[in-house]
Write a structure and sequence with these properties.
The chain folds into three domains: 2-69, no CATH class; 98-212; 216-305. The protein is flat. It has helices at residues 14-24, 29-41, 47-69, 81-89, 98-129, 134-146, 155-171, 183-190, 193-212, 214-236, 247-251, 258-272, and strands spanning 245-246, 278-281, 293-295, 298-300, 302-305. The protein has twelve helices and five strands. Strands 1-5-2 form a three-stranded antiparallel sheet. The longest helix is centred in the middle third of the chain and has 32 residues, at 98-129.
Length: 306
Amino acid sequence: MAGGLSEYYGIPSKEAVDQIQSTLVNLTNNEKEKLIQHILSSDRDDAISKQIYSTYKAASYFVNFAKDKFKLIGSRNELSEAGEQLLSLRSSAFNYSESEKLFFFNKILETDFLLFVSLCKFIRIGKKYNYKDYVDLQFDFLDEYYGIKHFNFTSASLGNYNAVRNHWIQALSILDKKKFIKKKYLKIITLSPIYQSWLLDVEGKILLFESDSFKEILKYRRNKDKFEKRYTNLLKLGKGDLGFVNLYDIKSVMVMSYESFDKFLNTYYEHEKRKKHIFFSNIVNSIDGRKRFNVRNVPVLKVKIK
């Protein structure tokens, strides 16, 4: 159980809680507060500090989720009306009843309709086109049609948010075998004029995305994979110079004109610079009179990717 987490999603294990309890039990409240603040603000070198830190983060996440996102807890840390409702539905320690599933689905729609429903739709697109990177497609879509850009999310938070959404999709059994949203959940959406309007808007824009941008994105992804694979292979063959590879050596396997490759390089740089360190150079060891490529209007002949 890595990080002291149990087999239940994100919940600290009993072993971790017992170890922390034995560490804190004889401390005063003031001493506990100072110790936790120190652990949160400094390097964590020993096992118990790491365990306290990870358990504190998990507890904070669940409190924030219950209080700020789902509004199950009020400002004075008392159960809200929604919290009381959920408590009355609770039927099992580890399995959701049908009533609980519908309750949580309604709460997710209230707080995360666009990103959650669009993720469901792009899981279906991933299956339809046998395309594994459907989350990247989803954020290209959100960027183009809703102005939600990649840089609004750090890579860490994006991964965490997607992990949580995927967990809810699986835990509530939102999708059927063909990856369509199940009828009982669609019924909840269509019974609300607002949700139905939002759904029609998302579906309409996804159809536009499929017919307009999708083919170009798939083409770019294929070229990107070919570009990076060729770069890596050339490095393995000793064709690199301090990690820099000649762009013409990469272009030779990509069946592209100079103009198309130049356009691809600029697109690649703008798309990938947030995820990778990409360096271009015009320095060569011997005379090379070939026409330079231009990235952001700077002449380049070599690339290095980290």
